[in-house]
Write a structure and sequence with these properties.
With 280 residues, the chain is of the alpha/beta class. The chain contains eleven helices and seven strands. A seven-stranded mixed β-sheet has the order 3-2-1-4-5-7-6, sandwiched between helices.
């Protein structure tokens, strides 16, 4: 599969027609006014990563994100982490995503939260970022590298757009020592667009490009607990889906995706890592 095919296939995996309208309808169903919502109101549908908002704020503290920073959220999807950073910290965030519908819906949701002055969206590839050198104080990646095969180019681009002294903050799913993984998972229904690498390899790649490591932690155990709690809640609900949830974005097979990901974590087929690196 070529790089362009990867780009198109990843976009197709996440694309949903009229996603913003679907989310607005679900908000109305749960008693929220779609014309006056908060970032927290959107949390059930826009936090496309393990441990949700808590993980975002933990990583922000670890990376030292402050109000005056300009942040690039690579693969930021609907903008859940971006709106969290903007609303909780006050920094400006640009979301860069390969899925056009995510950017379109993300802009509409952000406008309704009143955060449009701090959060923006750009439809583009992470392998060819449309930004000048040294444009950002921080680059954010939260569960987005799994769909990117050319990680060498990815991290080189991140290094390029970061200013000296800027930080790369990542919270990513990576390959465990046991292979292969069980599909479907939230980022892929098959192996064609799933590109996990072992954490040791990714860690060495990032530092080899010229970053200096500030933090590196294995978050697999806490992530597995989080999945088990949500699966237990789903079982208690007898499979009935809530009006507002990640199934609106990831599809009707979300339950199987979650169960497979929990199994992959349990069987050491996947791991979750949190890290911060500085560009000297």
């Amino acid at each position: 599969m070529s790089g362009q095919d990867d780009y198109r296939s990843v976009g197709e995996h996440y694309a949903r027609d009229d996603l913003a309208a679907v989310v607005f309808a679900a908000l109305h169903e749960v008693g929220k006014d779609p014309d006056s919502i908060t970032a927290q109101d959107l949390a059930p549908v826009d936090q496309l990563h393990t441990r949700g908002k808590d993980a975002t704020l933990e990583l922000a503290r670890l990376a030292g994100v402050t109000p005056e920073m300009r942040v690039l959220d690579v693969g930021g999807g609907l903008g859940g982490p971006a709106r969290t950073l903007a609303s909780e910290i006050g920094c400006s965030v640009e979301v860069l995503d390969v899925t056009e519908e995510f950017c379109r819906a993300g802009e509409m949701l952000t406008t309704r939260t009143g955060l449009g002055d701090l959060v923006s969206f750009r439809h583009a590839s992470a392998l060819d970022m449309p930004h000048p050198d040294a444009s950002f104080d921080a680059v954010w990646m939260q569960h987005s590298s799994m769909n990117i095969a050319d990680k060498e180019r990815l991290y080189a681009e991140i290094h390029r757009v970061l200013r000296p002294g800027g930080h790369l903050a990542l919270h990513e799913i990576m390959a465990g020592p046991v292979t292969p993984i069980h599909f479907p998972v939230p980022w892929a229904r098959g192996p064609e667009i799933s590109f996990l690498r072992p954490p040791e390899e990714v860690r060495a790649l990032i530092t080899g490009i010229g970053f200096e490591e500030s933090a590196w932690m294995d978050e697999t155990a806490s992530s597995l607990r989080w999945f088990r709690e949500r699966l237990a809640a789903a079982d208690a609900a007898s499979g009935e889906l809530p009006p507002l949830g990640l199934h609106l974005v990831l599809g009707a097979d979300l339950d199987q995706m979650f169960r497979n990901l929990a199994r992959n974590l349990q069987e050491d087929r996947a791991v979750v890592v949190q890290g911060v690196f500085e560009r000297p």
